[in-house]
Design a protein that fits this description.
single chain; 125 residues; HIT family, subunit A; 5-stranded antiparallel sheet; 5 strands; binds adenosine monophosphate
Length: 125
């Protein structure tokens, strides 16, 4: 079911549980601000999710309420994950679904990193 981006943070969401170590994830990177792990249902040869450690429902919530340090740390972590995986030269795509029309499914901000093949047009036409 798609997430309403204006809803309150639900600390039982699946990514909150991954952050608390309650369920496993195939981690690729972690620092003070972010955790990155492989998507369980990859849509490209490389499909990694990067999430902030703070409790933010969506890009909207994060961009409005996170501190400067959290925002800087998270944005740098996304860049680091892609760089470290060697994705800069071939190229990669970032996606942050936000709310109902985007079909956001998990109510904790996550940036998808897609790569590993030519990804085609941005949206299905
Ligand atoms: P979105 O539609 O943008 O909310 O994307 C949610 C993503 O989370 C989907 O690509 C799912 O495959 C992925 N996902 C859901 N549960 C897990 C999990 N336990 N571990 C890794 N990825 C997950």
């Amino acid at each position: 079911m798609a997430v309403d981006a204006t809803q309150a943070y639900d600390d039982q969401n699946i990514f909150a549980r991954i952050l608390r170590g309650e369920i496993p994830a195939r981690k690729v990177y972690e620092d003070d601000w972010a955790l990155a792990f492989h998507d369980i249902n990859p849509q490209a040869p490389t499909h990694v999710l990067v999430i902030p450690k703070g409790a933010y429902v969506s890009w909207d919530d994060f961009s409005e309420h996170a501190s400067e340090a959290e925002i800087a740390g998270f944005v740098r972590a996304v860049g680091h994950v892609a760089r470290d995986a060697g994705l800069v030269a071939p190229g990669y795509r970032l996606l942050a679904n936000t709310g109902t029309d985007s079909h956001q499914e998990v109510p904790h901000l996550h940036v998808h990193v897609f790569a590993g093949r030519p990804l085609g047009p941005m949206l299905v036409r």
